[in-house]
Amino acid sequence: MKVEILGSGGSFTIPRPGCGCRICREARQKGLPYSRTGPSLFVHGPNVLIDTPEEAKEQLDRSRVKKLAGCFYSHWHGDHVMGRRVWWSLNYDFQHTIPQHRTTTIYLPEQVAADFRTNLGSWQHLSALEEQGLVKLVVLKEGARIELSGVRITPFPLAEGYVYGFLFEQRDRKLVIVPDDMFRWRPDESLRGADLAILPMGVAEFNPLTGRRRMGKRHPVLADEATFEDTIEIVRQLRAKSVVLTHIEEHDGLSYSDLERVAEKLQKRGLNVRFAFDTMKVKV
Fold first, then answer.
1. Burial class (CB in 10 A: 0-12, 13-18, 19+), 186
2. Taking every annotated instance into account, which residue ranges of this chain make up the domain Metallo-beta-lactamase (predicted)?
3. Residues near 223 by Cβ (< 8 Å), separated by ≥ 6?
4. In angstroms, what CA-CA distances link 224 with 76, 127, 182?
């Protein structure tokens, strides 16, 4: 298996429209790997996509993805779902009088499917695409798993209940992917010791280079979002051989170069942690 990071940003991508901060100016000037699009990744082997941010079409177009066996959605938030129209772009056939559309299977954990029915019109949109034959919706009951190309894929709920991670297993190889929101989550023993873990970075309450506080203690985001410090504690608990942190927000004020320095600090502390960038590829 191999993971391709299609988008390493979060709900506020880099550069942010209209923003003149150091991070956004540098991203506009240099492009990749300083710029970041919305959160999405592709797992080569089973050939599955996880989430479709607004830039999903452009992400897939610039990637090396040739075969798409299906897509999993982790939760209902806009930064993970608002590129749903990619299924129209990928699969609709305009060339033939009698259309020969392609169909992509969309896998939804049961709670995600329920949330799609009440948030952002996701269920209505995907159902309309299904009626046209462009997607097939598969709702996975709690604890269910599927197998694609010899890879077993198991969605698992995080502490917040509405967001899911995914365990990929192929023979003796194990990959853990958590796209977002590890607030109050503690990993189950079955997830520990993975060959690779892809996790969200968490909110930079403190600057990880200087230790200086960046956010007030009463900032509302701290009431329901995991911090970078929380993430590092989860990294220790997971004991994965290699970790890549993604879902990197513009408002954290950290450039690609800054995060390379943070990774060096973590590696000196014995943590094999790297930070994702758009187009990054990692073998499991």
1. exposed
2. 47-248
3. none
4. 16, 31, 10
Burial class for 98, CB neighbours closer than 10 Å (0-12, 13-18, 19+) = exposed
Find the range with the poorest average confidence among 5-9, 95-99, 107-111, 153-157. Answer: 95-99
> Scanning the structure block, which residue is given the tokens 């890879």?
151
The answer to whether the CB of 36 falls within 8 A of the CB of 278 is yes
Q: How many CA atoms lie within 13 A of 35 on its CB side?
A: 13
> Measured at the alpha carbon of residue 180, what is the angle toward residues 179 and 181, in degrees to the nearest 5?
150
Contacts 24+ apart (CB under 8 A), 235-239: 235/197, 235/199, 235/271, 235/273, 236/271, 237/186, 237/187, 237/192, 238/176, 238/187, 238/191, 238/192, 238/193, 238/194, 238/197, 239/192, 239/193
Amino acid at the residue 120: L
CATH classification of the domain holding 153: 3.60.15.10
pLDDT tens sequence across 234-246: 999 999 999 999 9
CA proximity to 72, closest of 162, 192, 164, 160: 164
Q: Could you tell me which residues come within 8 angstroms of residue 174 by beta carbon, excluding any fewer than 6 positions away? A: 167, 168, 193, 194, 195, 284
Report the distance separating Cα 68 and Cα 59, nearest Å.
13
For the chain, the domain total comes to: 1
Residue 231 carries which DSSP code? H
Q: At residue 137, what is the residue type?
A: L
